[in-house]
# Entry
Amino acid sequence: MGRAMLLFICSLIFTLIPSGLVHSWSEAPPDWDSFASQYRRLAADGKFDLAERLWNSTYAEMEQYVQTLPDSHKESWTHLNIYSSTDDHEETRWKEGVITFLEVTSSDHPYPILAEKLEHLSDRTVSSVPIEDIKEEWNLIRPVVLNYVNKAKVNEADQSLQELSVMETHTGREHFSGKILELVKEKSQQDWSTFLLTAIFIGGAILVTLLYVGAMNYRESSKNRHTMKSGHS
# Structure
């Protein structure tokens, strides 16, 4: 009976854990976070030759990774590559867009990452950054966002940016800033809520299992002691 109960609880845990989480345990994607950190650190230190060498040596692995993704992500990758450039400034911006793509698509919790990127773009929008730069940065994150957000909301952000391009005003900057912040705000909160609920459930199930097994062992031990006392009397 004890073993059957234990098997039932374990089966329940793996049934209710999100399938994506189980998949991530069995087949972990490449560690793009480490690659991103290393590449950014080299670039920040002015070691551009090493950063370029790292990028070139890893690009083939990036393309192999993309082939494992759904078609919608493959389309995003193709769209991102349109912005590849020989201009150093534009190429740096394009590479950052590619890194964002890798970080988001390989994460079990993509919405907080997207929220952080969009918050950064929002802050730049309401500052003195030229609108052309804002447009280029938006074009590089937009293909990724489209796979996680309602397309109508993305179109609203597009429209807001188009109006801002025609007539640049502080109000227009704030309006576009608000539009991009709205894109993943709710889903980011839901993503973390789901993660926390899953963690609480798993922890609770493990605790219940341990308590149950402990209680069964204690009852069996008490029974044995009672049997031994009865045998000596």
The first helix runs from residue 2 to 16. The mean pLDDT is 81. The chain has eleven helices and no strands. Residues 44 and 143 are 26 Å apart (CA to CA).
